[in-house]
Amino acid sequence: MVQKRRKKKPSRKLLSRKNLPILGVTVLFCIGIMAGAFSLDHIYQRHIENARLAQAEQAAAERAQATLAQKKSRFIELKKQREKQAAQQLAATQKHKKAKATPKEAPKKVAFSSYIPAASSQIVAIVIDDIGYQRQEGERTLALPAKLTVAVLPFTPFAKSLAKQAPAAGKEVMLHAPMEPKKLSYWGDGLKASMPEQALRESFNSMINDIPNLVGINNHMGSGLTENAEIMAWLMAELPARGLYFIDSRTTAASAAYDAAKKLGIPTYERDIFLDHSRKPKDISRQLDKLVQTAQKNGMALGIGHPYPETLQVLEQRIPQLHAQGIELVTVSELLNARANRVQLALQTNKHSGTPKTSVF
């Protein structure tokens, strides 16, 4: 009997060898997938980076355009301002020429006090600045029991009413003319160094015309403007026809205002003491003592204060004491009268004694 041959089963070793190509392909496929994924991720990251770079470049370009537009706008604005200033200067020049050709009515002279203190008296003039904004402080100033001078700011709410009340209260009226300072960024409207000559003169005269009963002028601020000798000469030239005096508040040591007034023969004086740099009553009282000492030494002195409650309180308390000390409180015009009289007496004495003469102002 013929025996059937059994089919031999392939060995595991043989199966393993046959599967090698499949495994290899599988591995290669997996590697390919991983490489593709890595490549796609790299491409995506590059795309993101390029997009960000493009956004940054676009933003930079927009900023550059905005800056350029801003500069262009500023240039146009500056050009317009310069054209406007040039037009104003041209108009002022033409108006000045026309004004010279047309005769003007002479401004009215205001007579100030004719009283002359005795040559032997020690006199003090006190000026209270910044009158016009507050009615209550202004009226309290007018009620002080002595001759004083109030310096009224033009175009303020109570300027006219307080200036009208002043003479009946025994007070003299000055214009407190706003002038450009050096450092303050905001100081209100007033006389500026950038203004043409005719504009300055007209603005100055408008201030003078705004205040009733005024007999003199002093400067409000003005540390920048009063150092300009040319501008001070322009302004002082407006005063002789009106018969006004000028008091230099001396807001700067380099002020040219006093010399400009003196050259034109305008009655003028320089402030000796500021009363209330500090608003503490004890400091104000100390400054008042310095003012009295100056008067005792020189025969006269001029102090400037403000309508602060502390200043008014000290003056209300101290004025009776000043009378007791032999100090005569006078208006500014009376102080100027006294000085002119004393200088005249000195000139006469010098003439008889043969000593050199001194200047009246």
From TrEMBL:
Gene3D superfamilies: Glycoside hydrolase/deacetylase. Pfam families: Polysacc_deac_2. Keywords: Coiled coil, Membrane, Transmembrane, Transmembrane helix. InterPro entries: Divergent_DAC, Glyco_hydro/deAcase_b/a-brl. Residues 54-81 form a coiled coil. One of its GO terms (biological process) is carbohydrate metabolic process. The chain crosses the membrane at residues 20-40. This is Divergent polysaccharide deacetylase family protein.
